[in-house]
Amino acid sequence: MEICSIWAVSKTGRPYEGPVVKVASSGKGMVNYMKEVMAIVRQNKVNVTKEALALAGIPAFTCRKVLGRGKKLIDMTLLRNIVESGEIPVDTSGEYLSETTRLIPKRVFTIVVEDHDIEKVVNAIMEVNSTENPGDGKIFILPINENYQVRNGEASLDAY
């Protein structure tokens, strides 16, 4: 694998005078060895998710508090029954009605791993977060094209 320099030109057309960034290349362009796993999970599943990732050998991740909602729709029969009775039920059917526009607190884990670790990460997250109910979450896999260390500007193909 060869290392090539990227020389940037500013908007004025003059050469960039900052640090030179080294980019790892296979000789045929950039090779994507990494993926980002973005997992949206219930807020009460953060600790078990952290433990599952640690047991799977995934030491690095980011976890953020977010608000959002899924595609859950209202059952119109349920709505008619509530309108006729005049009160919202206390059971889960009342929750379905109140969630039509309400943003639900969730947590988003962002994990950058090498391609061969994707299955291990997804399985670890699904194993501890699945209750087989709507709202358990969603997992997205995204490509990572480049990776730079802020400290020294070095590019790397390593996930960590």
Automatic annotation (TrEMBL):
InterPro entries: N-reg_PII, N-reg_PII-like_a/b, N-reg_PII/ATP_PRibTrfase_C, N-reg_PII_CS. GO terms for biological process: regulation of nitrogen utilization. It holds the Pfam family P-II. One of its GO terms (molecular function) is enzyme regulator activity. SMART domains: P-II. GO terms for cellular component: cytosol. Belongs to the P(II) protein family. PANTHER family: NITROGEN REGULATORY PROTEIN P-II, NITROGEN REGULATORY PROTEIN P-II HOMOLOG. This is Nitrogen regulatory protein P-II.
